[in-house]
Amino acid sequence: MIAVDANGADRGPAAVAAGVARSGVEALVFGPREALAECGPRAEIVHAPTLIGGDEEPALAVRSRPEASIVQAAEAVAEGRCEALVSAGATGAVLAAALLRIKRLRGVHRPALAVVLPTLERPTLLLDAGANVEVRPEHLVQFAYLGACFMQACMGVERPRVGLLSVGEERAKGTPDVLEAHRRLAERAEAGERTFEFHGNVEGFDLPRATVDVVVTDGFTGNVALKVMESTSAELGRAIRQQLARGVLPRVGGLLVRAPLRRLRERIDPERIGGAILLGLRKPVIVAHGSFGPVGIASAIRLARRAVDEQMVERTAAALAAAGVLRSGVGGSVAQQR
Amino acid sequence: MIAVDANGADRGPAAVAAGVARSGVEALVFGPREALAECGPRAEIVHAPTLIGGDEEPALAVRSRPEASIVQAAEAVAEGRCEALVSAGATGAVLAAALLRIKRLRGVHRPALAVVLPTLERPTLLLDAGANVEVRPEHLVQFAYLGACFMQACMGVERPRVGLLSVGEERAKGTPDVLEAHRRLAERAEAGERTFEFHGNVEGFDLPRATVDVVVTDGFTGNVALKVMESTSAELGRAIRQQLARGVLPRVGGLLVRAPLRRLRERIDPERIGGAILLGLRKPVIVAHGSFGPVGIASAIRLARRAVDEQMVERTAAALAAAGVLRSGVGGSVAQQR
After folding, report:
1. Which residues in chain A have Cβ-Cβ distances shorter than 8 Å to B205?
2. Does the CA dihedral B165-B167-B173-B178 come out positive or negative?
3. A120–B235: do the CB atoms touch at under 8 Å?
4. B-chain residues near A240 (CB < 8 A)
5. Distance in angstroms (rounded) separating the CA atoms of residues B17 and B22
6. Same fold, B1-108+280-312+328-338 and B134-270
7. What is the spatial distance between Cα B328 and Cα B338, in angstroms, rounded to a whole number?
8. Beta partners for residue A206, in sequence order
9. DSSP secondary structure string, B135-165?
């Protein structure tokens, strides 16, 4: 059973309810009961009208408002009533509720927000996309495992290629923290790392090109890069439509190319993926984009279901432990943890 | 007279020579004499066949090879024989030669690499685009002045709007260094800053949207953002052409929309701008893109000419001094400097 927080989506709780119904997945839905009539036969409803908004201080709001839908939904996952969490609410609130209730995986420094990039070729995962504006090398190393295990479990990539985002391909390019993370990842690769293949540094150029399966970076750079990519696509699309609207011949041409352009747009449609994933927690947590309609919400719920069924969290824990990259004070290998 | 380093461009010194001729600007051209026959009537040639490549350690190469064309060209500027430097060679080598020979403006912490973004609306300057992978708040504050004075002098923007790149618009969003830079810039704005208007934080979304005239960031984030933007445009353009090539009707449509798409491409053509600008040095330095042909090289040379004629460097020095944001140990105001 997937816990779904129905509050906070731009199109309101009813759009989330429609997404629940569309997903066909068993769900426990938290939100204002009167808006959740159309959740479908496989959903149970918990009346939880209280919303934590994007303009509130998330940790404070989560602590002081246990009745909020996102807190109740996270609680249901923490208690084992549900197996994963999906919300289209404010990212900060979801992150705070997940951290405080569901909690980090043992030995994980920081959960990361991962996003499947709208690339044209195969999917590329970018993390961190904004959960941690400052990171240390050991965080970046863990992100490589978090991202690789997601791509294995949920996207069927057997041995993901992991790239470290920097300002040049050469291993000497980057900030001191990036150089140190590169050194550690290269060391692990030489030691015969099985979870992923370390590709070395990648550049901004590589994000839309799907050079690797996972791009690891800090949450500041990742957030900026993601937004630049989204906005460049949107602005270019807008400019093309404007140009096509001028003159008669281009307009006729525009009609004729409309179908191929639509196909292209569908290929890069974020609703197909289901949103961002919070990795490094004890249960799968999906942050659907606030703008998603029922299609996107259904994708998010199915993604959560897949993460549970494919044991994403268990695989991640095992990979981190086997690699000996857990936070110090926590067993450094599977053997030690037993 | 503009010093032009003809070595290092992808299309070879002859393409640079053609750009010199096309510019119509007086130039002193450094490169292999045999390839520079077509520099036009307003150019003098200095035979300097030695190239510093992109794979060399720049500072070391500049120090040990004074005969290299980029070093001789920078020297000509340092000695006052030329007023500005243009090169299509490796950015690192140009930066090293400029730092070692032309030198920083008095009181400037770090020169920054600035790039006019290929936005569709009015031009937006991004800096730092890669000269400094790590920066402190005082560097970011200086970048605001460097960028604003360039936009004033070379792009005719009377009072540029400056944004600080972060992960959210709210002033509490960002790394500690970004928050501190925000605080200082806001303080200057409240004190009646005349050189620019501080817009506050901008996000990755804003880069292609021309929300502000100048976007200030560290060289790591700026480099990644610029490359993501370039690559997203290129990949999307490629995908559109692929889609249009399928089927007969779309192909006919494709023919009809070819002209408007070409007009669009021309509007975002980086060769129109002339390349990246190294700001914070004692003379204007332009790094033309390695891929530029004669059109781009000519734009770069004209941009250098404009920076000289419009006294970009002198305006920058005056603005930094008036604002009291010079490196400590250097006079903090114009009055003190006299």
Report:
1. 227-228, 230-231
2. negative
3. yes
4. 240, 260-261, 264
5. 9
6. yes
7. 16
8. none
9. --HHHHHHHHHHHHHHHHHHH--SS-EEEEE
Contacts of B245 in chain A (CB under 8 A): none
Tell me the angle at which helices B294-309 and B13-23 cross, rounded to the nearest 10 degrees.
Answer: 50
Residue A103: is it exposed, middle or buried by C-beta count within 10 angstroms (0-12/13-18/19+)?
middle
Chain B hits for A253, CB-CB cut-off 8 Å, are 252-257, 260
Question: Between A147 and B332, where is the model more confident?
Answer: A147
* Option in A204, A206, A253 nearest B223 (CB): A204
The closest CB to that of B133, out of A167, A227, A246, belongs to: A167
Give me the residues of A, 266-295, that contact B with CB < 8 A. 267
Give the residue among A60, A61, A27 at the shortest CA–CA distance from A44: A27
For A201-228, the pLDDT digits (tens) are: 999 999 989 899 999 999 999 999 999 9
- Distance, in Å, from the CA atom of A119 to the CA atom of A235, rounded to the nearest integer, reads 16
Domain spanning B134-270 has what CATH number? 3.40.718.10
pLDDT digits (tens, 9 = 90+) for A293-334: 999 999 999 999 999 999 999 999 999 999 999 987 654 443
Quick: pLDDT tens for B280-296: 999 999 999 888 999 99
Report B:203-232 residues touching A (Cβ under 8 A): 203-209, 217, 219-221, 223-232
A313's tokens: 């969290």
Name the residue among A220, A237, A259 with its Cβ closest to that of B175.
A220
Please report, for residues A139, A216, B312, the alpha-carbon distance to residue A187 in angstroms, rounded to integers and kept in the order given. Answer: 16, 16, 48
Whether B204 and A221 lie within 8 Å, measured CB to CB: no
Q: Do A175 and B133 touch (CB under 8 A)?
A: yes
CATH topology of domain B1-108+280-312+328-338: Isopropylmalate Dehydrogenase (3.40.718)
Do B243 and A263 lie within an 8 Å CB cutoff?
yes
- Give the whole-angstrom CA distance, residue B287 versus residue B277: 6
- The label of the residue with tokens 């997404």 reads A19
Nearest C-alpha of chain B: how many angstroms from A111? 17
Strands A2-5 and A84-87, by their bridges, are parallel
H-helix segments, chain B: 13-23, 58-64, 69-78, 91-97, 137-155, 176-190, 219-244, 248-267, 294-309, 312-323, 334-337
Which residues in chain B have their CB less than 8 angstroms from residue A234's CB? 208
8 Å CB contact of B228 and A205: yes
pLDDT of amino acid A250: 63
What is the rounded CA–CA span in Å between residue B338 and residue B333?
9
Q: From 3.40.109.40, 3.40.50.1220, 1.10.10.10, 3.40.718.10, which CATH number describes the A1-108+280-338 domain?
A: 3.40.718.10
Do residues B69 and B48 touch, judged by C-beta distance below 8 A?
yes
Domain locations in chain B? 1-108+280-312+328-338, 134-270
Contact B253 A253 (CB under 8 A): yes
- Interface check A60 vs B, CB under 8 A: no
Residue A96 to chain B, least CA–CA distance (Å): 16
ipTM of the complex, rounded to two decimals: 0.90
Name the CA radius of gyration of chain B, rounded: 21
